[in-house]
UniProtKB/TrEMBL annotation:
This is SDR family oxidoreductase. Keywords: Oxidoreductase. Belongs to the short-chain dehydrogenases/reductases (SDR) family. Pfam families: adh_short_C2. It comes from Dongia sedimenti. Its EC number is 1.-.-.-.
C-alpha cells in the first residue's frame, strides 16, 4: 500500500464512484483528504465516520477553484496532491450541440481542472506535489454521440502532458488516469441515460472490453494512488489507460 502519511490530498467529485474510492484509499494510506461535490448529502454520507473533510464546491464555478485549494491549506497547512476527478458528460449528437451544452462539459472537464491546478501551484511547488487528472478511454479513442465529452477529455490529456513539461522545473509531476467503463452512477447520472438504456450500454461494453468486465471504482483508484505515490517520483506527463484493454481495439 502507498505511504501517504501526512500528505494532504484534494479529490474533486469525491462523494461517489471513482473519486470516493480514491479518497477512501488515500485516507486508508494515511493522507488527510478533502473531497468536493455539489450536493451536501452525498458529501456527508461519504465523510461520516472518517477523518476526511467535505466542501460543497462546483468545479464549473470559477471562484470555487481558489476556495477549494484554500480550504485544504487552511485546514492542514499544505497541499501535496490534487486529483481532478469530477467530470461532466452527455450524450450529445452533433446535430443537438448548443453553446450552453458544449460549455457545460468544458467548464467541468477543462476549465475547472485548469483553474484548480493554477490555484494549487504555489502549494504544490512548496511540497514537490503532484496533479492527477481523470480522463476516459474516449479521451484518446473516437466515439459516436459523445464527441464533446471525448474532446474535453482529449484536451485534459493534452493539458496533462503540457503541464508536466511546464511544471517539471518546479518539481511538480502531472499525470492522468484514463478510465474505461466503470461501475459508478455515471451512466444514469452525468450521462443522463434511462435505467434500461444504461443496462444496454453496460452489456455492450462488457462484450467489447477485452477483459470482459466493466471496471470497479477501486480498479481505477489504485492507479490514481500509484501515480501520487512518492515511488512514482520519476513519472510525469503520462496518461495511463485503466480500461480492461478497451483502448486497444
Ligand atoms: N464511470 C465511468 O465509466 C467512467 C469512465 C471513464 C472516465 N470516467 C471519469 O471518471 C470521473 C469520475 O466519474 P464517476 O463515474 O466516478 O462519476 P460519479 O460516480 O457520477 O461521481 C461523480 C462525482 O463528481 C461530483 N461532481 C459532479 N459534477 C461536479 C462538479 N461540477 N463539481 C464538483 N463535483 C462534481 C459528484 O457529486 P455531485 O453530483 O454532488 O456534484 C460525484 O461526487 C469523471 O471525470 C468521469 O468522466 C468515468
Amino acid at each position: 500500500m502507498s505511504n501517504m502519511h501526512d500528505k494532504v490530498v484534494i479529490v474533486t467529485g469525491g462523494s461517489s464512484g471513482i473519486g470516493l474510492a480514491a479518497a477512501t484509499s488515500f485516507a486508508a494510506a494515511g493522507a488527510k483528504v478533502l473531497i468536493t461535490g455539489r450536493r451536501v448529502a452525498p458529501l456527508e454520507a461519504a465523510t461520516q465516520g472518517t477523518n476526511a473533510m467535505a466542501l460543497v464546491a462546483d468545479v464549473a464555478i470559477a471562484k470555487d477553484a481558489q476556495r477549494t485549494i484554500q480550504a485544504a491549506v487552511d485546514a492542514w497547512g499544505r497541499l501535496d496532491v490534487l486529483v481532478n476527478n469530477a467530470g461532466a458528460g452527455a450524450l450529445l449528437p452533433l446535430a443537438d450541440a448548443t453553446v450552453d451544452r458544449i460549455a457545460d462539459i468544458f467548464a467541468v472537464n477543462v476549465i475547472g481542472p485548469s483553474l484548480l491546478s493554477a490555484a494549487a501551484l504555489p502549494h504544490l511547488a512548496a511540497t514537490k506535489g503532484t496533479i492527477i487528472n481523470v480522463s476516459s478511454t474516449y479521451g484518446h479513442r473516437p466515439v459516436a454521440g459523445l464527441s464533446h465529452y471525448a474532446a474535453s477529455k482529449a484536451a485534459l490529456e493534452q493539458l496533462t502532458r503540457c503541464w508536466a513539461l511546464e511544471l517539471a522545473a518546479m518539481d511538480i509531476r502531472v499525470n492522468g488516469v484514463a478510465a474505461g467503463p466503470t461501475e459508478t452512477g455515471a451512466l444514469t447520472g452525468m450521462m443522463g441515460l434511462s435505467a434500461d438504456r444504461a443496462e444496454a450500454v453496460k452489456s455492450d461494453e462488457r462484450n467489447r472490453i477485452p477483459l470482459k468486465r466493466r471496471g470497479e471504482p477501486l480498479d481505477v483508484a489504485r492507479w490514481i494512488l500509484s501515480l501520487a505515490d512518492p515511488a512514482a517520483a520519476w513519472v510525469t506527463g503520462q496518461v495511463i489507460a485503466v480500461d480492461g484493454g478497451l483502448g486497444l481495439i
